[in-house]
Structures are given as structure tokens and as C-alpha cells.
């Protein structure tokens, strides 16, 4: 990986989780198929988060322990957790990775529904998407280097690449 040699902590974000970190850490999420990993970063405070969402919309159960599997709930939790560390949603740099039809099923609609849901929710909240790698048929992974503020991703078995801002 292309991380700084003195990174003190690698934080894995599993499917349905939201995790936040500070400088000198890397957040990473693997096995991204139809899911979408949302990376959010404040370059001044060097605080970032990854939300690895599975499903569009909001959880049908308010008290569900798995609420952050859903796009709207995960984004809300991510924004709230970052706010606890002094980050304003207006200062976020957001990147999206995933939403692929990795099983290549013609009737699979969850990937497109996830993409549409995440983009619409972020737009409604006034959060700008800086870069995205969405769709296709390859599984992906993503890493957010909180010291450098860089997002790296892989597609299939390819080498890790830097995600360029649009």
C-alpha cells in the first residue's frame, strides 16, 4: 500500500459499519460489490470517515441494530460522529466507491438503487461529491489516508490507484 510509513493505525470498516478516525490512521473497506463506501474527509482537521452501506434509503425499523447498513442512516451517523470531532458537513470532501453488479445478474437492481440513493441523500444535505468510481462489474476496495487526505481504491485484482478529484 502507498501509506506513509509511520501510520500508527489501520481501521477496517466492515459492511454496514461507519467508522471515524483522525490523522496518523488509515480507514479501509474491502469487498465492496453492490455496496457503496462513502469516504468523508476534513482536510483542515484531518478527520475522516468511511460508511460502508449495503442498502438504499432508510432502515424500516427505527431501533434496528443494523441501521447503518442503510444509506440514509449511515450518512446521518457519519455526519454526527464527525460533528462530535468538530467537523462541519460543509467542510467535507466526499468520495464514493462501489455500486457494482459483481454477480452480473440482469435483474439485480440494488447496485443502481444504492448509487441513486447515496447521491440523492448527499445532494439533499448539500454535500458535494468530489470523486466517484461507481457501477461496472468489478469488486472494489477503498482506503482513506487521514494524514495525507488521499483516497486509494482497487478494482478487481488491479493495483491500488489514487482516486482523483473531479
Written account of the structure:
- The chain has 166 residues and is α+β, with helices and mostly antiparallel strands.
- 17% of the residues lie in helices and 34% in strands.
- The chain has a 5-stranded mixed β-sheet, with no helix packed on it. A 5-stranded mixed β-sheet has the order 2-5-4-6-7, with helices on one face.
- Strand 6, helix 2 and strand 7 form a beta-alpha-beta unit.
- The mean pLDDT is 93.
CATH class: Alpha Beta
How many separate structural domains? Answer: 1
CA-atom Rg in angstroms = 15 Å
Tell me how many strands there are.
Answer: 10
Tell the overall outline.
globular
Portion in strands: 25-35%
Biggest β-sheet description: 5 strands, mixed
CATH architecture, by name, is 2-Layer Sandwich
* Straight-line distance between termini: 23 Å
Describe this structure in a few short sentences.
This protein is an alpha+beta fold and 166 residues long.
Notable features of this structure?
60s Ribosomal Protein L30, Chain: A, single chain, about 170 residues, five-stranded mixed sheet, 2 helices, about 15% helix, alpha+beta
Topology:
Blueprint lengths: L8 E4 L5 E5 L2 E8 L3 E7 L4 E7 L17 H13 L9 E6 L11 H15 L4 E6 L5 E6 L4 E6 L5 E2 L4
Parallel strand pairs: 1-3, 6-7
Antiparallel strand pairs: 2-5, 3-8, 4-5, 4-6, 8-9, 9-10
Amino acid at each position: 500500500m502507498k501509506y506513509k510509513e509511520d501510520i500508527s493505525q489501520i481501521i477496517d470498516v466492515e459492511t454496514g459499519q461507519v467508522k471515524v478516525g483522525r490523522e496518523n490512521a488509515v480507514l479501509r473497506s474491502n469487498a465492496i460489490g453492490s455496496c457503496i463506501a462513502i469516504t468523508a474527509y476534513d482536510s483542515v482537521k484531518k478527520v475522516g470517515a468511511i460508511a460502508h452501506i449495503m442498502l438504499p434509503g432508510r432502515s424500516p425499523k427505527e431501533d434496528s441494530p443494523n441501521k447503518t447498513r442503510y444509506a440514509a442512516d449511515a450518512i446521518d451517523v457519519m455526519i454526527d460522529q464527525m460533528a462530535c470531532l468538530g467537523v462541519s458537513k460543509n467542510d467535507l470532501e466526499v468520495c464514493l466507491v462501489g455500486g457494482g453488479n459483481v454477480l452480473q445478474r440482469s435483474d439485480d437492481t440494488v447496485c443502481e438503487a444504492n448509487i441513486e440513493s447515496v447521491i440523492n441523500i448527499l445532494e439533499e444535505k448539500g454535500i458535494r461529491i468530489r470523486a466517484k468510481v461507481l457501477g461496472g462489474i468489478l469488486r472494489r476496495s477503498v482506503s482513506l489516508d487521514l494524514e495525507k487526505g488521499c483516497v486509494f481504491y482497487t478494482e478487481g485484482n488491479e493495483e491500488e490507484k489514487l482516486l482523483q478529484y473531479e
